[in-house]
Amino acid sequence: MTTAPIANGTATLTPPSPRTIAGRAHDAEHPKLFQRVREQMDQAAEAVGLAPEVRKILSSPVCEVSVNFPVRMDDGRIEMFSGYRVQHNNVLGPFKGGIRYHQDVSIDEVRALAAWMTIKCALVDIPFGGGKGGVQVDPATLSRREIERMTRRFVYALGANIGPGYDVPAPDVNTDARTMAWIVDTYAATLPPQERYRALAVVTGKPVSAGGSVGREKATGQGVVDLIEMWAADKNCTVADLTYTVQGFGKVGAWAARILKDKGAKLLAAQDVTGAIKASGPTGLDADALAEHVKKTGGVAGFPGATAITREAFFGVEADVFIPAALENQVTGETARLLNVRLVAEGANGPTTPEGDAVLCERGIDVLPDVLCNAGGVVVSYFEWLQNRGGAAWDAAEIDHKLKDILTRAYGRVKEMVESKSLDWRTAAYAVALRRIEQVYAERGIYP
Ligand code: NAD
């Protein structure tokens, strides 16, 4: 199952060869994220008596690519950027996972995010492994043209380390459909002309007009809402009865909020990098209008009619559901004590620290863990990849139906594991995923 970085042989452009690295100085910013994933996997492995060799294999990524590459700025200067692609495991299928642009991106963070993708794909039972990528940059400091040149040069630097049947990126924090379109275009340019037709499936999350799938843009938010609906049904209530708060009003948070609005739920507060706001009146915040405001101004702050509040006050707002949809490490021991909700539905990856988990458990707050709750994105990415490879175009109803079906089955498997082994939902979700991976290793064995 080990896969070495692929060298670019026949490329029209010849990207530099990738390098494998062990660590970076800025790891100190996220000192323990991958270690946290390992501990989460160990806990679940212990609970279900997982084969020790599977635990051992998953304790390190298959491959780590680190690239440093030059980009010409608008004023003519050359700046160097560092980017990563970590390929954690591919026993179930090609590596799959987003590309993030953020100043705090580090090899440890990307490693953790890649491992979470391995667990997520196995849990929802789609034929992908886990990968993730990122560039350490604050995109707010770059112009649109600089971001485009940086994206293209990053793809060129990654070379054949990504590919439609090998490793398939997607949008993540600060990247979107437009970024994916640039990736396809650049990747296609590195292929011989006869092979360029393959390039479309190198990424998912493309604009619909450029080979993307209907439903992909909202898919992660849709999945979050589908899962909240399943949780609500188990509590004998409906989504229309619920109030909620959202942290992060980007692709995941805004879509989850807008779909919840359509179903009659009430948004009470929102927070992002620009600040926190609370509804001033009894009708709540209008999620569609707020999404428009964020598009225009860059954040939730200053939304007309809302009251500005502090981050602490935001965490303390009384509601049924809290949806973290920003970054890792937001629900800590401290903020979990402030929460006044019945459910944390994790739209973000890794939003809850182990201390946060312990406090939520002690306080009887339910958690729909990230690997289940935000899996809608990768499921519809899988649909997009299938459509690209088969030359097909599915309609929105078919995609929504197939997505709900996959998530309902995954929810059922986790619930059964929770009940049969008396586990919390996060450990149970990992246990289901690890069992799936164990099954494949048992059947395939290890070469030679
Ligand atoms: P995005 O860039 O579209 O939005 C990120 C949001 O987080 C923005 O509203 C931003 O203001 C906010 N934010 C950033 N730093 C913050 C901070 N310190 N405090 C509060 N808010 C902050 O990104 P996205 O694609 O919506 O991803 C959000 C999360 O969901 C990430 O954890 C990502 O890995 C995860 N996720 C995304 C997808 C997807 O399909 N995009 C799929 C699964 C999981």
Task: Give the SSE order as H and E letters.
Answer: HHEEEHEHEHHEHEEHEHEHEHEHHHH
CATH class value of the largest domain: Alpha Beta
Helicity range of the residues? 40-55%
CATH architecture of the largest domain: 3-Layer(aba) Sandwich
CATH homologous superfamily assignment of the largest domain: Leucine Dehydrogenase, chain A, domain 1
Number of β-strand runs: 12
**Unique ligands:** nicotinamide-adenine-dinucleotide
CATH topology assignment of the largest domain: Rossmann fold
The number of distinct structural domains comes to 2
Task: Characterize this entry briefly.
This protein is of the alpha/beta class.
Describe the model:
Helix 1 (33-48) packs across helix 15, helix 3 (107-124) crosses helix 15 (425-444) and helix 6 (216-234) packs across helix 7 (251-262). The strands form two sheets. A seven-stranded mixed β-sheet has the order 9-8-7-6-10-11-12, with helices on both faces. A five-stranded mixed β-sheet has the order 1-2-4-3-5. Residues 1-30 have low confidence and may be disordered. It is built from 15 helices and twelve strands. The protein folds into two domains: 2-32 and 48-205, Rossmann fold, CATH 3.40.50.10860; 219-368, NAD(P)-binding Rossmann-like Domain (Rossmann fold, 3-Layer(aba) Sandwich), CATH 3.40.50.720. By secondary structure, the protein is α/β, with parallel strands linked by helices. The N and C termini lie close together (10 Å). Bound molecules: nicotinamide-adenine-dinucleotide (NAD). Nicotinamide-adenine-dinucleotide (NAD) binds next to helix 7 and strand 7. The site of nicotinamide-adenine-dinucleotide has 24 residues, from helix 7 and strand 7.
